[in-house]
Design a protein that fits this description.
two-stranded antiparallel ribbon; Transposase_17_sf; Transposase_17; Transposase IS200 like protein
Length: 118
């Protein structure tokens, strides 16, 4: 979720964010299974091995995406003027070991709400 729940992402931002998060996942030897987002948060579904610390993965996903998005899209600066952060410090992670990947993908796809064009 973005800092202060600001609605900052357009479709273009979300497409680039997905690319960035896929690169981060590759660095961690993780498999990005699905990605979707809205104007103020993202829904990545990631398969990761037990050797990967979830907190490190999330911190990298947020940190790298924040740095790159702010560099590539300077207009985002107006949304994080108070704290100089794009993301809030919180995140949700759930274990879905028994669920079929098709069910999880469907859930994430349904989270998408229209985002303003950009």
């Amino acid at each position: 979720m973005t800092k202060f729940r600001h609605r900052v992402f357009t479709g273009t931002h979300l497409e680039r964010m997905e690319q960035i998060m896929r690169e981060v996942c590759a660095d961690f030897e993780c498999e990005p299974a699905e990605f979707n987002g809205e104007s103020n948060h993202a829904h990545p579904l990631v398969n990761f091995p037990p050797k990967v610390a979830l907190s490190r993965l999330v911190n990298s996903l947020k940190g790298v995406s924040s740095r790159r998005l702010r560099t590539e899209f300077p207009e985002l600066a107006r949304h994080y003027y108070r704290a100089n952060k794009l993301w809030s410090g919180s995140y949700f992670a759930g274990s879905v070991g028994g669920a079929a990947i098709s069910v999880l993908r469907q859930y994430i796809e349904q989270q998408n709400r229209p985002v303003r064009a950009g």
